[in-house]
Amino acid sequence: MPPQKTDRDLVEAAKGGDSAAFGAFVRRHQRRVFRLAVHLLQNTAEAEDIAQEAFVRAYGALDRFDGRSEPFTWLYRITVNLSLNAIRSRKTRRAGTTTDDPRIEAALVERRPSLSDPARQVTDRELALALCDGVDALSATLRTTLVLVAVDGLSHAEVSQVLGCPEGTVAWRIHEARRKLREFLSTRGYAADGEAEE
Amino acid sequence: MTGNHREPRLPRGAEELLQGWPAPSRGALAWEETASAVMTRVRETTLGSTPDDLLAPPLPEEPDEAGRTVNQGAAVSDASPANEPSLADIARAALAASQAATREVARDGLIAAELGRKLPPREPPKATRAVLDAAGLQGRIVRVPDAPAPPPSVVKPVPQLAEVAAEPAPARITEAAARSEFPAPPSREVRRSHAAAFAGSALALAAAAALYLSFTHREAKDALVTASAETPQAVARREAPSAVAQAPAAAPGRTEPEPSPAASAASIDDGQLAAAKSRPSSVIAPKEKSLAFHVKKESAANEGKLVLEEREDPASENAPPPAQAAAPPPPPAQGLVERPSTGAVQAAFGSVLTSARSCLAGQDSGPRATVTFDGATGRVKTVTLAGTGAGSPAESCVRSALMGARLPPFSEPTFTASVTVRPL
């Protein structure tokens, strides 16, 4: 079995006109891009459109990818920009998280054990709703940084490449987002288990 | 990476939910359809069609973000600026500064070294401040308080930059190093003398090793020692790979016990040995005419030191009568092995086989060599080549290489060994 090509290999091949290589790049990252878009947009259909658009835009900008960063961080930046543009262009702001929020569905499906326990299912749903409300209450900057780090699992260095800011700024944003989120959850009756500072 | 342990922790359930929060699940077919749709659109897309604003950093700063940042693995710090310059920024700023500024920084460093940190810290020069300002570091450098300044009478005034520049650099550095708390680097002359001493020591060690071998293997056969009442002599045979030295004789007409090799080597002046080593190799190369090194007391200034003097070997041309000989030569066969050991033969061939094989580079096979060694000298007498490589242009090359093999002397007249020389 031949060794799997790296993202850089695929992007370089796509730059040279190899559309199959870009297809492999799309198939490799479409799930993560979609998840990022869902958490930023809170809407599945919109997230699908943005994810597709992100790949198309990335292809259109291949000539400007200089290889200084990882291709996926470059793709993430395009996704975040497109998502923020979509949020700005909305005519109405969301009043709050509803039960049909795709994030709630995803969280509950992931927690299958709770499905057999109706009481716990209700508890989990309420917690997910509160968490979604708390995340949505954050500014776009803090929310995006938190999603990239906590939800998507990127390192601070990778997030600093996506967002174009120093790692220390990423760390501060994460700290601030968590502090505000904890305060928000405490108003909903979810107190932290221990001290904030370990 | 999801942050460090000092970040505010969320309630347990919320923390678990946040980590790796999934997207709505979709089937593999749905993903494939999405990928196909993307590729359909991609085929209609041209490179360069994406506007630049989609590639720009996406998010604005937080309102209270300025002046706040978190170092990795540290708590929140309000003191450091948000846009803390990275090392790359600092390097770029330093490069952007003019050459004059760089020189001034270097001079400032020289002055600081010269003063040996005995003066209270002073503000960096304007150019240095410019560099620090460009890097965003001005005001962030923590100055460690120095020791109390000495009385003004002791303090040497700070030299002007022009004076420092006009002064020869080595002198400044030496003077500064003398006052510094740190050890000064060795000067070029000191390093040179160290190198000479090292070379001399190495030569002395080599001489000691050679003497040891000489005494071990050739003492009985090759010792050629002449003693003189006034002049201590050390004799070395030209065929031997080393010189044989002898300590000064204490009494005339008396055969002195041979000194230990180490003692002989240690008593030889390093400089003289270096001079002897620097002689042309043709002088040291074996000749038909036998020469010997004699120990000579050079002058009063060199009294106590042994000097090697090359002159024709009296043993070969004007051999003294047996009565004048300081010591009768030992029986030739005494202490010699009857024939060389297998290991000695292998070692002898091993030292020359690589060069012999290199003669056959590009060939498929090589000749079989029959080498005959002379028992008295251990040298090769004849080389006979047979086989595929024989008669080829490389034959003389192989023969010449094999002629360089050496064995310790042995008592039998000759010894013959065979070896197959294969190409590299």
Structure description:
The complex is a heterodimer of chains A (198) and B (424). Chain A has 198 residues and is mainly α. Chain A contains nine helices and no strands. Chain A has helices at residues 7-15, 19-41, 44-60, 71-88, 102-110, 118-137, 140-151, 156-163, 167-187. In chain A, α8 packs across α9 (167-187). The longest helix of chain A has 23 residues, at 19-41. Chain B is α+β, with helices and mostly antiparallel strands. Among the domains of chain B are: 89-179, no CATH class; 192-312, no CATH class; 342-420, TolA/TonB C-terminal domain (2-Layer Sandwich), CATH 3.30.2420. Chain B contains 14 helices and seven strands. The two termini of chain B are 55 Å apart. At the A-B interface, α2, α3, α4, α5 and α6 of A face α1, α2 and β1 of B.
**Overall outline of chain B:** elongated
Question: For the residues shown, what is the average pLDDT of chain B?
Answer: 60
What is the percent of helical residues of chain B? 25-40%
Q: How many helices of chain B in DSSP terms?
A: 14
Radius of gyration of chain B: 40 Å
Low-confidence stretches of chain B: 1-5, 72-83, 135-190, 218-330
What's the β-strand tally of chain B?
Answer: 7
Q: How would a crystallographer describe the biggest sheet of chain A?
A: none
**Oligomerization category of the chains in this entry:** heterodimer
Helix coverage percent of residues of chain A? 55-70%
In CATH terms, the superfamily of the domain at 1-93 in chain A is RNA polymerase sigma factor, region 2, helix turn helix motif
Q: Please tell me what the overall shape of chain A is.
A: globular
Known CATH architecture of the domain at 1-93 in chain A? Orthogonal Bundle
Largest interchain contact: A-B, 87 and 64 residues
Decide which structural class fits the backbone of chain A: mainly alpha
In what range is the share of β-strand residues of chain A? Answer: under 5%
Which segments of chain A are poorly predicted (pLDDT under 50) over 5 or more consecutive residues? none
Distance between the termini of chain A: 47 Å
CATH topology of the domain at 1-93 in chain A: Rna Polymerase Sigma Factor, Chain: A
Q: Helical segment tally of chain A?
A: 9
CATH class annotation of the domain at 1-93 in chain A: Mainly Alpha
